[in-house]
């Protein structure tokens, strides 16, 4: 199984390099659980300055509304009610939220700690779940007065999930850094299976073509996109409430 690491300053820099690597050196492997094949390798993405602009990549499925909704799902648990309704077994937020106070307590107790870990995988539930958690764990470090975050995914859909996953987790990192009163450090995103399903290979090829042609494929987050995401919040809240009520 091929192993690769990409490193760069901004999130789009690193994400785009990871797509290029998957296209070039990914191997075609079977994926019998979904009756398909996939292009796959093990990938580590190292983002040196997660908040460096431009922070938004155009190469993901969705736009500012979808990105804002996903950020809220991950950080604020706006769809956690689906668990109570019996529609979902878990959300990432539901598994992370109760552990965040420990992270804050531990890093205040010992800023040099190596124990500030959030476990997302729950093997007792995930072993019998048709949709086990892809995100496995997060580890926070304070080094040099900065908060660094390292995350592990057992499986990560390169074209349809990775960018949104990384963006939301960086926003979580930012929130915790602000709570602790420290600066933002690096963000490292490890995917043991970084893949693109057979049906999405044309999407991957299209992304790579745009990267190679040096098209304008980024936006600044601060300013226009941040404002657009904020403006989408009432629409998101209305849609979530409608879903909650089942109407």
Short description:
The chain is α/β, with parallel strands linked by helices and 247 residues long. The protein has helices at residues 11-25, 64-76, 81-84, 92-96, 100-109, 123-126, 162-180, 201-212, 221-231, 233-245, and strands spanning 3-8, 27-31, 36-47, 56-57, 117-119, 135-143, 146-153, 156-157, 183-197, 218-219. Strand 8 (156-157), helix 7 (162-180) and strand 9 form a beta-alpha-beta unit.
Tally the beta strands.
Answer: 10
If helices are DSSP runs of H or I spanning 4 or more residues, what is the number of helices? 10
Shape: globular
How widely separated are the two ends?
Answer: 47 Å
How large, in whole angstroms, is the Cα Rg? 18 Å
Overall mean pLDDT score? Answer: 96
Poorly predicted regions: none
Summarize the helix and strand pattern as letters.
EHEEEHHHHEHEEEHEHEHH
Beta fraction of the residues?
25-35%
Helix content: 40-55%
Reported for the largest beta sheet, the result is:
8 strands, mixed
């Amino acid at each position: 199984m091929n192993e690769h690491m990409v490193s760069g300053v901004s999130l789009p820099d690193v994400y785009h390099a990871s797509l290029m690597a998957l296209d070039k050196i990914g191997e075609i492997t079977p994926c019998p659980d979904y009756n398909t094949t996939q292009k796959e390798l093990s990938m580590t993405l190292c983002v040196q300055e997660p908040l460096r602009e431009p922070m938004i990549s155009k190469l993901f499925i969705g736009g500012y509304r979808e990105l804002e909704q996903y950020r809220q799902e991950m950080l604020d648990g706006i769809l956690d009610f689906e668990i109570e309704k019996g529609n979902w077994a878990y959300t990432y937020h539901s598994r992370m939220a109760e552990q965040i106070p420990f992270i804050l307590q531990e890093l205040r107790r010992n800023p040099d700690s190596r124990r500030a870990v959030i476990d997302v995988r729950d093997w007792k539930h995930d072993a019998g779940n048709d949709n086990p958690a892809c995100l496995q764990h997060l580890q926070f470090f304070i080094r040099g007065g900065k908060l660094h975050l390292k995350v592990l995914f057992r499986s990560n859909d390169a074209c349809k999930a990775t960018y949104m996953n990384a963006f939301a987790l960086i926003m979580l990192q930012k929130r915790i850094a602000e709570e602790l009163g420290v600066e933002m450090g690096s963000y490292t995103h490890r995917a043991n299976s970084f893949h693109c399903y057979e049906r999405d290979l044309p999407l991957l090829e299209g992304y790579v073509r745009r990267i190679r042609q040096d098209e304008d494929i980024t936006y600044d987050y601060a300013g226009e996109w941040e404002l657009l995401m904020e403006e989408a919040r009432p629409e998101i809240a209305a849609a979530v409430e409608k879903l909650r009520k089942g109407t």
